[in-house]
């Protein structure tokens, strides 16, 4: 796994630290619970894939302000010396309950809840959202791509256009969890144990005087990984040259693995190239399609029975092109013994620590119920698991293949209608009677103690 920068604790928003100093000076540091959830679906989304939890837990377990970080904070002139002295010894000592990576979740459901002293729980907010938001977003889009490819392999080609190096690593991992077969990102492959895949660039072909010379050179050097990019000039003539190379390789007891088409009318060109290869007797030579693809293209190609064995998906998966953000929030739901909620217009939150129960009927996911954390429902699985206690992870991190298999099993049990690429129906997410009653009770209390007195004061000022 990649190591974190020494000053990773500084990767937070300024207001997290200014609030923390206020809590410190005011001795306002009781245990608090924060809930991480997504308020609404991005366009055409019907589910989310939990991803990024391992990075969050590693961060929390190693959380500390280095001497260098304290020095940098001192130089800002914003913080008091006694608060900076306090930060020197600050560690994360709280608990985390979360939906495991690879599981599905839906709007309003807490993907993760943090319970810790208020200062600790507040400062880590930014990093948690940063990691879970991106990786969940990418894993969810990757799942759509894999589903749309209908059994054909999909490879991550996104690295050069992801939003920075960290994003490039996380995209490779998240897409693999959601079913991608490989990545072109060498560092991600080595770090996470993801299979590597890649062919050649157009520059490789055009650097040789003749296209066939480029093909020969590559096949000589990589006889076991020979996939030739055939449309630098023209895909049909490129395919004919690939056949010539395939025959020469066969004479040496080798096999051409495949050809790649990266532009043009992929449907028509792919069919013609398949015909040319088959007529020459090379039925086992695979065809890989790439070039600005996403799940909508893959679905169209699948519906028309395109001739591709696999696809390379790059830019649009790496930045989640059609939906590059989610409305993810990390909200205080309990302080001390007092459950709390937010009443802001369009951003009302559910109070208190929670649990999510998943109901399954006839082997299929049927509906979820969000409940208070201390509720129990017989014979129904609770999704939020205790993954960190007193600042330490509760179990070894699962291997990536295990997370990948977990996703595959659960995704297979989700009804096809919720996987639709455009305007899927909302998966049923209910609120338990207990949680609903608690929400209404707190709202009535806030109206009586906060809103009505404030409105009365405004009226009195207006009349004076």
How is this structure best described in words?
This protein has 464 residues and is an alpha/beta fold. 42% of the residues lie in helices and 18% in strands. It folds into 3 domains: 8-138 and 323-431, nicotinate phosphoribosyltransferase, CATH 3.20.140.10; 199-289, TIM Barrel (Alpha-Beta Barrel), CATH 3.20.20.70; 438-464. The strands form 4 sheets. Strands 13-12-1-5-3-17-18 form a 7-stranded antiparallel beta sheet. Strands 7-6-11-10-9-8 form a 6-stranded parallel beta sheet. Strand 9, helix 12 (266-279) and strand 10 form a beta-alpha-beta unit.
The CA-CA distance between the termini, in Å, is 66 Å
CATH class bucket of the largest domain: Alpha Beta
The CATH architecture of the largest domain would be: Alpha-Beta Barrel
| Helix and strand composition category | alpha/beta
Shape: elongated
CATH fold node name of the largest domain: nicotinate phosphoribosyltransferase
Query: How many strand elements?
Result: 19
Proportion of residues in β-strands: 15-25%
Mean pLDDT equals 95
User: Strands of the largest sheet, in order across it?
Assistant: 13-12-1-5-3-17-18
Query: How would you name the CATH homologous superfamily of the largest domain?
Result: nicotinate phosphoribosyltransferase
The number of helical segments is 16
Radius of gyration, CA atoms, in whole angstroms: 27 Å
The total domain count is 3
Tell me roughly what share of residues is in helical segments.
40-55%
Which segments are poorly predicted (pLDDT under 50) over 5 or more consecutive residues? none
Largest sheet: 7 strands, antiparallel
């Amino acid at each position: 796994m990649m190591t974190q920068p020494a000053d990773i604790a500084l990767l937070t928003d300024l207001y997290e630290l200014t609030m923390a100093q206020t809590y410190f000076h005011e001795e306002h540091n009781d245990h608090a619970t924060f809930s991480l959830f997504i308020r609404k679906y991005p366009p055409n989304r019907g589910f989310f894939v939990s991803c990024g939890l391992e990075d969050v837990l590693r961060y929390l377990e190693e959380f500390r302000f280095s001497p260098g970080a304290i020095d940098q904070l001192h130089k800002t002139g914003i913080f008091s010396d006694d608060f900076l002295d306090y930060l020197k010894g600050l560690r994360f000592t709280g608990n985390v309950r979360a939906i495991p990576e690879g599981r599905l979740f839906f709007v309003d459901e807490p993907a993760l809840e943090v319970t810790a002293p208020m200062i600790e729980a507040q400062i880590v907010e930014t990093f948690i959202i940063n990691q879970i938001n991106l990786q969940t977003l990418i894993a969810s889009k990757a799942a759509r791509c894999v589903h749309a490819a209908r059994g054909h392999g999909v490879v991550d080609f996104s690295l050069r256009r992801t939003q920075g190096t960290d994003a490039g690593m996380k995209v490779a991992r998240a897409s693999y969890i959601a079913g991608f077969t490989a990545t072109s990102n060498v560092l991600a492959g080595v770090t996470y144990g993801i299979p590597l895949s890649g062919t050649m660039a157009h520059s490789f072909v055009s650097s040789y005087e003749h296209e066939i010379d480029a093909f020969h050179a590559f096949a000589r050097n990589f006889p076991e990984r020979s996939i030739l990019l055939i449309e630098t000039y023209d895909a049909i003539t490129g395919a004919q040259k690939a056949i010539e190379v395939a025959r020469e390789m066969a004479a040496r007891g080798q096999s051409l693995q495949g050809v790649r088409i990266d532009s043009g009318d992929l449907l028509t060109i792919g069919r013609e190239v398949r015909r040319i290869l088959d007529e020459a007797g090379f039925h086992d030579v695979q065809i890989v399609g790439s070039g600005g693809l996403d799940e909508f293209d893959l679905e169209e190609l699948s519906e028309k029975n395109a001739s591709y064995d696999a696809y390379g998906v790059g830019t649009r998966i790496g930045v989640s092109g059609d939906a590059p953000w989610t409305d993810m929030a990390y909200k205080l739901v309990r302080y001390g013994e007092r459950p709390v909620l937010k009443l802001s217009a369009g951003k009302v939150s559910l109070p208190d620590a929670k649990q999510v129960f998943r109901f399954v009927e006839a082997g299929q996911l049927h509906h979820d119920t969000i409940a208070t954390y201390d509720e129990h429902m017989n014979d129904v699985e609770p999704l939020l698991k205790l993954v960190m206690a007193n600042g330490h992870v509760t179990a070894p991190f699962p291997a990536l293949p295990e997370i990948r298999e977990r996703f595959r099993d659960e995704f297979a049990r989700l009804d096809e209608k919720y996987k639709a690429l455009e305007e899927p129906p909302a998966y049923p997410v209910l609120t338990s009677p207990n949680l609903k009653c608690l929400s209404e009770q707190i709202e009535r209390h806030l109206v009586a103690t906060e809103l009505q007195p404030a409105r009365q004061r405004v009226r009195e000022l207006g009349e004076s």
